[in-house]
Design brief:
The protein is an all-alpha fold. Helix content is 89%, strand content 0%. InterPro entries: ATP_synth_b/b'su_bac/chlpt.
Length: 184
């Protein structure tokens, strides 16, 4: 500590103008140099440092403001997306419900259509059976009539002689003549 005080005391003993010398006391010279440098820095660098800090502060504030705006926009977009999702989910549920009811309706329509088709086929079958029965009955009737006619002709031919045959023909012609006169 004595060296520090000695350096300040020795200030009064500096030689006057005309001589120039080196101060070899490191503590004294560093302290003076630091004081001078700090004084100059504070005097001249105060404005520059203040401007740098203000610029940095403004950039940080602008970044925070932009981040808040982006965050607000993102939240707004998220809410819009959620609203669209809810809307799409509701529409999907409506389509699902409507689809199930339409499928059910189509199923019943198909069942009813199939039932009507089966009913028509049953009617066609019954009509075909009835037609075939009538055809069979008519064919049997014709065969019976044919056999009866052949039997009657056979009986007539065996029982009738020519004279009886001619009288029967004459009687029938007479009946036809009488019927003709009644009609005219």
């Amino acid at each position: 500590m004595k060296n520090v005080t000695d350096s300040f005391v020795s200030l009064g003993y500096w030689p006057f103008a005309g001589s120039f010398g080196f101060n070899t006391d490191i503590l004294a010279t560093n302290l003076i140099n630091l004081t001078v440098v700090l004084g100059v820095l504070l005097f001249f660098g105060k404005g520059v440092l203040s401007d740098l800090l203000d610029n940095r502060k403004q950039r940080i504030l602008n970044t925070i403001r932009n981040s808040e705006e982006l965050r607000g926009g993102a939240i707004e977009q998220l809410e819009k997306a959620r609203a669209r999702l809810r809307k799409v989910e509701m529409e999907a549920n409506e389509f699902r419900v409507n689809g199930y009811s339409e499928i059910e309706q189509e199923k019943w329509n198909l069942i009813n259509s199939t039932y009507k088709t089966l009913e028509q086929l049953e009617n066609y079958k019954n009509e075909t059976i009835h037609f075939e029965q009538q055809s069979a009955i008519n064919e049997v009737q014709q065969q019976v009539f044919q056999q009866a006619l052949e039997g009657a002709l056979g009986t007539l031919n065996s029982c009738l002689n020519n004279e009886l045959h001619l009288r029967t023909i004459s009687a029938n012609i007479g009946m036809f003549g009488t019927m003709k006169e009644i009609i005219d």
